[in-house]
Give the backbone structure.
Amino acid sequence: MSATPTDILREREDNAAILAAARDGLVYLPLGGAGEIGMNFYLYGCAGKWIAVECGITFADETMPGLDVIMADPRFIVDNAKDLLAIVLTHAHEDHLGAVPHLWRKLRAPLYATPFAAGLLRAKLAEAGLKDEAELTEVPLNGHLDLGPFAIDFVTVTHSIPEPNALAIRTRFGMVVHTGDWKIDPEPLIGKTIDKARLSAIGDAGVLAMVCDSTNVFVQGEAGSEAEIRENLVEVVSRYKERVAIACFASNVARVESAVHAAMANGRRAALVGRSLWRMTEIAQACGYLQNIPPFLTEHDVGYLPRNEVLLICTGSQGEQGAALSRIAANEHPHVVLDRGDVVLFSSRKIPGNEKSVYKVRNQLARRGGQILTDKDARIHVSGHPARDELARMYHWVRPHIAVPMHGESRHLIEHAEFARAAGVAEVLTVTNGDCLQIAPGAARVVGRAPSGRLGVDGSRLIALDDRLLSARKRMTFNGAALVTVVLDKKGRLLADPQVSTQGLLDEQADETAKTAAAVAAQLAVEKLSRDDREDDGLVEDAVRLAVQRSLKAARGKRPLTQVHVVRV
Ligand SMILES: [Zn+2]
Ligand SMILES: [Zn+2]
């Protein structure tokens, strides 16, 4: 769909309103992550300057054929890139920094992250050929950053990865606490516990707005601790004499360390299977984590050890194609084989949208005689996001005047808004991607909508997800394609029978009748046109396309992507 003049006018007015609000006050403008879980991308504007918080991705599903990585369309801030002071990353999860290699050339702003995220980012920038171009500054834990009108304190919290940060963003209009992803883990195993005293002190100083994680707002109680999972893994592994594999997220370094503890406590040695595990553990060790454990075995070493002396730590808990666990389950791994009776522990949850691929892997493992344990069978996973009791404590510490839920689908944001109201927050606003919220001065309100959308990595380039190219591809995927060739003379007389060929729609041999009917429909469509119209290629194409689609729809119930070639001789 192309923009109408009214759309263009409205976009221009909205744009002017947003820029004015960001010049004269403080605004929050999410481009990704508000209305979905994934592809986080939040903007803050003040005194005419902007900072981006996060630059993340999400994964494509079957409605996006040919694409695998999706991210927020940053068009609004690309148009204002000269005023973009920085891209600040709160932690190293892909939904927070995975889009940096794809979008940095459009944004060209300095990057800021704490050491672990910076380590991962450096590797990603190098892969993308941006090592020398992109300026990346490491911020120490609990460090401070002055960026024009923004004075930012990093506040270490707890989550499911090393070094998660909340940001206390001070401006002359007041302070915003952007929580990032967090939970309250009393024993995170890696890194310190959440700093209640510091968060309370920030609350004492007066917080204008808190923009807060909504992922687990429907979950009662507390998320639970990594320490509890460590104990449980040690116990669960002790039950078996067979080979044991633990599937978990490579970025959950505490969990990886727990798997190593479970191995050591049970006379086993831990092997890493999967590239991202090697990368993450190397970065973690460079940052001073994972120090007091023996070196990991490689996948080559595994075959030489008796079954009960090895513990495999695998990537692929989401059933990702090509990841270690998928290859092992399909018996296609070059070095690692699971035998009948071997055990796979899923120390992870299914990310919504991954159910099919997770079940596929579990079914394959089950067919091969594997024993499978998930967090339903034993408590071997905890979430990294705050459940309701933790949210209540955060609101109690920070005491914001305004609450703005983020990092959630609409239902999470709305429930979180209810929660914040019940917690006594004076102003609560639910905004989704593209809404520009004026936080100050005056009562918080949405002042305009910025263009928002999604970009997908298509081969070697980025395309907009409403792109005509993608809708054509989708149509082709779901409905097949037809190609019609019509040969006319200069006056528009048909010189031969129209030729119809199809892809993914008809069985070329068996469906001769449907094809002939389509060709006849094309012929009639041309003949029905007036002599003048027949001299116009565009009109001939349109008439033939419609007629052929109608004919194929009648024959097969599908309207394929149809291309018409008009040949004049
Ligand atoms: Zn996260
Ligand atoms: Zn996240």
